[in-house]
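Final report, Chapter 2: Outcomes

The project's central promise was a pipeline that accepts a single protein chain and returns its three-dimensional structure in a standardized token representation, suitable for archiving and comparison. That pipeline is now operational. To close this chapter, we reproduce one record exactly as it appears in the project archive, with the input sequence first and the structure output second.
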Amino acid sequence: MGRGRVQLRRIENKIRRQVTFSKRRTGLMKKAQEISVLCDADVSLIVFSPKGKLFEYSAGSRFESILK
């Protein structure tokens, strides 16, 4: 049996919100890396935290010349 549906709404508790952000950000980065490897796709992911910190991931031949 699968998981129940999660109701999407803002998490009021600051600590829980930060923990959820960190876990979901890590999951997104992992999925971006997986789709890049499995499908040989060029992938770029940019995430800003609530405090404005930048997290980014990129993979693929198109991004090699941009990042150097």
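Archive annotation: The mean pLDDT is 89.
This record, like all others produced under the grant, will remain available to the consortium after the project formally closes.
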